[in-house]
Every structure is written in C-alpha cells, then in structure tokens.
Design goal:
- There is one protein chain.
- With 195 residues, the protein is mainly alpha-helical.
- Helix 2 (32-38) runs parallel beside helix 5 and helix 3 (40-81) packs antiparallel against helix 4.
- The longest helix has 62 residues, at 88-149.
- Strands 1-2 form a two-stranded parallel sheet.
- It contains six helices and two strands, in the order αβαααβαα.
C-alpha cells in the first residue's frame, strides 16, 4: 500500500509540474470591489446619481409643500363648513370649496406618488446601465493588462461564495494586479491633473 501511495504521489507531482510548465503564465488576482470603488468614473457616476436623487427630492418636497398647503386649506374649509354662526348658503359654499380642494389634493397626491415611482425607476435603470458600462470598461482594462503581462487567468479575489465567505482566502501580492489596473484606469482622470 505504501508503495502504491508513493507511486501515485510521484505521478501526480510529475503531471502537475508538466501542466504548469506548459501553461502560458501565472494566475493573477484583482479585487473588483476595490477597483470599482476607486475608479474615478465610478465616483463621477455616483455624483451624477446623487445630483439626480437630490433633484427628485427637491421636486417631491415642492409637491409635498403644495399638498400640505391644500390640506391646511381643506381643514379651514371643514371648520368653516361646520360653523353655525355662518349662514347655510355660506356653509354649503365652503363644503363645495372643500370638496373641490379634496379632489385637487387626491390628484396631487397621486401625481406625486407616480412621479416618485417613475423617477426612482428611471434612476435605478440609469444606475444599472452605468454599472454595466463601468464593469465592461474595467473588464476590458483587466484583460488588456493581463494579456500584456502574460497572465493565464485573472480571478476576482473579492468574490464570495454561498456562505458569504471569500472564495479566495489568500493572494500573494506579487500576483495581485488591483493597483496596476487602477493606475491604468485612472490615467485619464482629468480632475486629478487639474488639481
């Protein structure tokens, strides 16, 4: 049995060294989360999305102020419509005005809800497009760099498995190309050159 184990280990070690000797290069590792986070275009995209989010909030706040104003008017009309010191004709007029304001309030509330849903959906779609575009650009730069350096494959060392643990538990810094890829991606960052 010991002889068989020894032969098996010898065959595996010979076969393994042959495979590595024939390979085009080494494996490389990149922390995609770090690259995405530190890529200058990601920061620009986040600023653009924040601005659009602020615009949505501003418009929603304007609508909310109008709704609040109408609610206050409705409450004044409700109180006036119950005021027994006023004539029946005046109270009936207040009730009509209140009903008109309630319809206006309902319409404006629905408009605000529709507006917010539409704009959030648009913002989420835009965010998805931006992320896909950024990842495509990052992936292309990683491929370009890996081919130039002769790497056999590049593995994302920030990926997690089903249990939430990292798939790659250790990376030799010699084969970690995160900073090199970031340097290439951020070469064209004009904001840094101007500062």
């Amino acid at each position: 049995m010991k002889k068989f184990t020894y032969i098996l280990l010898l065959v595996i070690s010979c076969f393994g060294s042959t495979v590595w000797a024939k390979s085009d290069g080494e494996l490389a590792f990149v922390d995609m989360q770090e690259v995405i986070k530190r890529f200058y275009k990601t920061l620009l995209a986040q600023d653009q999305l924040r601005q659009q989010d602020a615009d949505i909030k501003l418009e929603s706040d304007t609508m909310a102020q109008e709704i609040k104003k109408i609610r206050e008017e409705v409450e004044v009309l409700r109180v006036d419509s119950r005021n027994k010191t006023l004539s029946k004709e005046v109270r009936d007029n207040k009730i009509e005005q209140m009903e008109t304001k309630l319809v206006e309030l309902q319409k404006l509330t629905q408009e605000m809800s529709s507006y917010q849903k539409l704009r959030r959906d648009q913002l989420n779609q835009q965010k998805g497009r931006m992320i896909r575009k950024l990842i495509d650009e990052i992936t292309a730069k990683i491929n370009e760099y890996a081919k130039e350096q002769g790497y056999m494959a590049v593995i994302d060392c920030s990926s997690k498995g089903n249990a939430g643990t990292l798939l790659v538990l250790y990376v030799n810094n010699k084969n970690n190309i995160t900073d090199a890829v970031l340097a290439r991606l951020n070469e064209e960052d004009k904001t840094k050159k101007n500062n």
